[in-house]
Amino acid sequence: MFSDPQKNIAELSLADGMKVVDLGAGSGFYTIEAAKKVGTRGMVYAVDVQQDLLNKIKNSASLVGLHNIEVVWGNIEKIGGTKLREAVADRIILSNTLFQIAVGDRDNLALEAKRLLKSGGKLLVVDWMGGSPLSPKTVVPQMLAESIFQKAGFQLEKGFDAGDHHYGIIFKRP
């Protein structure tokens, strides 16, 4: 099976009222699923550098009656680039994004995620495995992803099966 946002988000133990940041939100599949889980008292911040994708997320959310999504035009590769305040998030989602980040910017991405996440909060990383006919030319292997976020101070909580072509990792911010 291809990567399933609903199944993968279940690994984050989202609850009513939580605040979630979707870094590199793209088309918003994870944003929409997270918004359903955190309810009307919760909030999901969809951050992306592409304004047209953010507009698509807004439209998709409206179509399904979700009003707890805020789109943020920002740069996840710079510390402070998301324009969100420190420790705003209970949970962070980074799905199908890490492979697109230049090698020199990956540490900044990890530090920005750490800046946004509350102590005790969790980070979900889902990204492409190599060797699949569908995977992009450049992938970030799971062990490298783990080291990037551990170097930034995250604790590895667990890895999980995120679909036939993806790996999934849950980190915790101490």
Name some characteristics of this structure.
Rossmann fold; alpha/beta; 5 helices; seven-stranded mixed sheet; 174 residues
Please identify the top-level CATH class: Alpha Beta
CATH homologous superfamily designation: Vaccinia Virus protein VP39
What summary fits the major beta sheet?
7 strands, mixed
Oligomerization state: single chain
Taken in chain order, the helices and strands follow as HEHEHEEHEHEE
In summary, what is this structure?
The chain is of the alpha/beta class. It is built from five helices and seven strands.
Verbal overview:
This protein is of the alpha/beta class. It has one domain (5-172): Rossmann fold (3-Layer(aba) Sandwich). 29% of the residues lie in helices and 28% in strands. It contains 5 helices and 7 strands. It has helices at 5-10, 29-38, 51-63, 106-116, 142-151, and strands at 19-23, 43-48, 69-73, 89-95, 117-128, 155-161, 166-172. It has a 7-stranded mixed β-sheet, with helices on both faces. Strand 1 (19-23), helix 2 (29-38) and strand 2 form a beta-alpha-beta unit. The longest helix is centred in the N-terminal third of the chain and has 13 residues, at 51-63. It is globular and about 40 Å long. It starts with a helix and ends with a strand. The mean pLDDT is 96.
Helices and strands in order:
Elements: H1 5-10, E1 19-23, H2 29-38, E2 43-48, H3 51-63, E3 69-73, E4 89-95, H4 106-116, E5 117-128, H5 142-151, E6 155-161, E7 166-172
Parallel strand pairs: 1-2, 1-4, 2-3, 4-5
Antiparallel strand pairs: 5-7, 6-7
